Amino acid sequence: MELQRLTIHNIASIEDATIDFSAEPLCNSEVFLISGKTGAGKSTILDAISLALYATTPRLENTQMQGDVQDGEKELKIDDPRQLMRRNTGEAYSELTFIGSNKIPYRAKWSVNRSRNKVDGNIQAKSWELENLNTKQLLTKDADIRQELTHAVGLEFDQFCR
Q1: Which pTM value belongs to this model?
Q2: Is the distance from CB of 22 to CB of 125 less than 8 angstroms?
Q3: Is residue 127 a contact partner of residue 108, using CB atoms and an 8 Å limit?
Q4: What digits encode the pLDDT tens for the residues 134-151?
């Protein structure tokens, strides 16, 4: 799999960011370092990639914490990825374009919003989609996306996290 472009909007510590893996200096680097101060968003970059591809993150999947968190009128599980939406925002998303190991270009997007995108709105269900950029076929059902990603990435979530 070859990452092309990652766009992050209101995920954890990152308000807005775009990383173009197909441009210099990243496009010619086999390995690169993500560095920065505590809270700068290093883990959030990895979370955003994972959210777009798998609609979850290792940070949440492996948490030892239990319980629910109150979000307006709803209670969210502590490991619910929607909790990664920045506080005091009405929407959040992670969008990743990549070329699969099957040589097909894709766009994967995970998003969540509050009612009417208002800060005080109730949190809505996540949206997750995968588009084949060659055929323009758009998958929106979780099972269909997971099946296609297995072919595109060649890894299940647990394998990807290793």
Answers
A1: 0.89
A2: no
A3: no
A4: 999 999 999 999 999 999
